[in-house]
């Protein structure tokens, strides 16, 4: 599998100080990405900024104004991205909080992204601001990008911003603040984060660290990089820049999976137990019975023939497993009418005692 990166670009990295989109900035970012042999999904902010620039109005204060300006700006933003990524095509993907929270929509988005990568196009993702109500919105693209990284099983999440990493304090406020180049445990640095650096940004370092926390729990490293396309290029060339926030080590994640309360159990045969112990995923064929009522994404206990062997995050709900257990993977689609995953529990989401 190719290296897969989710790159989130904040409004502050796309616009000038008047909040207008600067095409040269987009060009520099696309050029830096062009040096990589990787699949990249871009989470691009800047729709509201682009809308303000086009209509020559100040930054909106109310949500409806913001929604309308995002709708104006999104199309213009996509046109700019299409220009700089040519000859590669770009694919606009707008997501809302509901798409992350609803399992069917989450899986649909996952499939669409996979298909986009296969087509060799660059997915450009933003929050679907026009339908995002106050109660149901992610509100910032840092959080969105972490979910996207999880969605497309990225190897790395890069947050491109207007500061070259996480500092011991907001460097705009405290000039003695020092950059941290490596953070092993994001929970220990959450308190260092301050708010947005400019009127153009949303959330500041706080939402970036929250995003890193989501990515970290999904086993994905986060990098906070500054300096636009040039900063990105320097980073790809190995310069000592930015902050790397390490994903939870396998052991930490393993511990987390093992210590969550389980919503049900999957009983598995000895062949399946052997497969799991040699690092494979759990397929429906090896399941001999189920207990409890669990949903997709919840924790289930794995019961071997001689007792519990571990826990995992399940890819199908109990009522679905009821219909596919003991059957071949190839039969899933025929039985359920869809097949979101081959595995009932993927090996990356499995922890054995
Ligand atoms: N501890 C910190 N280290 C670095 N930057 C910080 C810190 N606390 C707050 N910030 C602020 O976070 C800003 C970046 O976030 P933000 O303005 O939301 O940009 P973006 O548009 O890229 O999301 C920086 O400009 C900086 O002022
Ligand atoms: N969805 C909004 C961006 C929201 C956001 O998080 O902005 P930023 O902090 O600049 O990444 C837009 O396109 O304007």
Automatic annotation (TrEMBL):
Gene3D superfamilies tied to this protein: Acetylglutamate kinase-like (3.40.1160.10), PUA domain (2.30.130.10)
Functional pathway: Amino-acid biosynthesis; L-proline biosynthesis; L-glutamate 5-semialdehyde from L-glutamate: step 1/2
CDD domains associated with the record: AAK_G5K_ProB, PUA_G5K
GO BP terms, alphabetized: L-proline biosynthetic process
Residues making up the signal peptide according to the UniProt record: none
Reaction it catalyzes: L-glutamate + ATP = L-glutamyl 5-phosphate + ADP
Source organism superkingdom: Bacteria
E.C. designation(s): 2.7.2.11
Function according to Swiss-Prot or TrEMBL: Catalyzes the transfer of a phosphate group to glutamate to form L-glutamate 5-phosphate.
Family: Belongs to the glutamate 5-kinase family.
Protein name according to UniProt: Glutamate 5-kinase
Annotated source species: Deinococcus cellulosilyticus (strain DSM 18568 / NBRC 106333 / KACC 11606 / 5516J-15)
């Amino acid at each position: 599998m190719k290296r897969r990166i989710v790159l989130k670009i904040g409004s502050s990295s796309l616009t000038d100080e008047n909040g207008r989109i600067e095409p040269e900035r987009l060009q520099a970012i696309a050029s830096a990405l062009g040096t990589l042999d990787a699949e990249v999904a871009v989470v691009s902010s800047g729709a509201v900024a682009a809308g303000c620039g086009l209509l020559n109005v100040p930054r909106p204060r109310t949500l409806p104004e913001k929604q309308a300006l995002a709708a104006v700006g999104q199309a213009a933003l996509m046109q700019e991205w299409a220009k700089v990524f040519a000859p590669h095509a770009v694919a606009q993907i707008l997501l809302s909080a509901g798409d992350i929270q609803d399992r069917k929509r989450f899986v649909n988005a996952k499939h669409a992204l996979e298909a986009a990568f296969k087509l060799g196009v660059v997915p450009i993702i933003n929050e679907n601001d026009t339908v995002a109500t106050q109660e149901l919105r992610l509100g910032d693209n840092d959080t969105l990008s972490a979910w996207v990284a999880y969605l497309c099983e990225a190897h790395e999440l890069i947050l491109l911003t207007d500061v070259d990493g996480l500092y011991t304090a907001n460097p705009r406020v405290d000039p003695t603040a020092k950059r941290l180049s490596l953070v092993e445990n994001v929970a220990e640095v959450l308190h260092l984060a301050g708010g947005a650096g400019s009127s153009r940004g949303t959330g500041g370092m706080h939402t970036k660290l929250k995003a890193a926390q989501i990515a970290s729990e999904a086993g994905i490293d986060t990098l906070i990089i500054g300096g636009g396309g040039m900063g990105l290029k320097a980073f790809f060339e190995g310069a000592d820049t930015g902050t790397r926030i390490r994903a939870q080590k396998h052991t930490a994640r393993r511990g987390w999976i093992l210590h969550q309360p389980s919503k049900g159990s999957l009983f598995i045969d000895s062949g399946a137990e052997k497969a799991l112990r040699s690092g494979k995923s759990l397929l429906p064929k090896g399941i001999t019975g189920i207990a409890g009522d669990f949903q997709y994404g919840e924790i289930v206990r794995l019961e071997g023939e001689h007792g519990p062997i571990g826990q995992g995050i399940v890819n199908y709900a109990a009522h679905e497993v009821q219909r596919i257990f003991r059957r071949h993977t190839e039969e899933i689609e025929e039985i359920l009418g869809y097949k979101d995953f081959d595995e009932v529990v993927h090996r990356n989401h499995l922890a054995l005692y």
